[in-house]
Amino acid sequence: MKKDKSNFYFRRKENQTLQKLPGSLNGSDFAISNCINCEIYIFDYLAQVFVDDCKNCKVYIGPTKGSIFVRDCQDIQLHSSSAQLRISDSKNISALIYSQSDPTLENTSGLILGPYNFIYPGFKEHFQLSELRPGFLFKNIQNILQINVDEDKWSQVFDFTPNSSCKNWDLLPPNQYPGIIIKEIEGVEGSLENPIPIPKIYGGDSDIQIVLGSQGSQNIGDMMSFNINTSQQQAQQVVEQQEQIQVEEQQQQEMTKNKPKNRKDKELKNIYYNLNKEIYQQNKQKATNKEDNVWEKVIKNIALKSGEYQGKTDVSRMRQAILNKRLDLK
Fold this sequence. Notes:
The termini are far apart. It is elongated and about 130 Å long. The strands form 2 sheets. Strands 1, 2, 3, 4, 5, 6, 7, 8, 9, 10, 11, 13 and 14 form a 13-stranded parallel beta sheet that branches. With 330 residues, it is of the alpha/beta class. Mean pLDDT is 78; it is low at 136-149, 218-236 and 308-313. Helix 3 (232-304) packs antiparallel against helix 4 (311-329). The chain contains 4 helices and 15 strands. Helices cover 32% and strands 23% of the residues. The chain has 2 domains: 1-218, Pectate Lyase C-like (3 Solenoid); 229-308, no CATH class. One of its GO terms (molecular function) is nucleotide binding. It comes from Ichthyophthirius multifiliis (White spot disease agent). One of its GO terms (biological process) is post-Golgi vesicle-mediated transport. Belongs to the TBCC family. This is Retinitis pigmentosa 2, putative.
């Protein structure tokens, strides 16, 4: 039976509440485009999701095995759990998310990030079907090895186009975090359990560190983490200090980057100078040797004709006179 393509997208909707019920998608792709002033609920697990050219919308997306793409959007509230979140060419996005890899930004500003907070009947089962891995599944391993293995990288943003004058993204202040949003679905039963740990600073019970920025991003410095005892003011001070350190590191990197180039230029100039000097000396020596050979030939010819003179003494004197003459010419 041929699938109805219209079941797999919301397009050109305005001022509406839109939803997809559990079982309507079952791991398929889904697209949301050109929607304005809409509230959108996807109560199912998916393969990947595309959100394009939307304005002033609230978008709630079920567990997604692959990537969620947000492109050319403005003033969007996003609630999503996925293997990856990619936001490009957008502004003023509020995203409360679970992301199994570093969220990525490109040409985007005004992004506010917070931990995931949206559940519905059957969410936990959909989370498992999408093969996502919440951090607490590794809790026993973490306790044994005394390490923190966190699968949720919601705060570890990799910004491909960082802004030197201001940051393109920031964390949601804990006092503005709305807490868990539970959406009941008429006629649908299922667990309302949230499998995703919430950090204590946001009212949860998880001791997982909140890491600011991707560890692979050049514009992000060392790890910064906060816990329940950290105030927003203290956290902001740490962020500002870290940003200052980043500026200083960038300046140092630029200086270090330029030094080898200058040193290389100097070395090349020295090599060029020494090479020219060596060539000059060689040419000069060749010219001198050539000149010496000419005089030696003259002396040899005179010596061969020594019979025309009174003995070898005269030849020796003439040779010395010739040598003296050569010195005078120099």
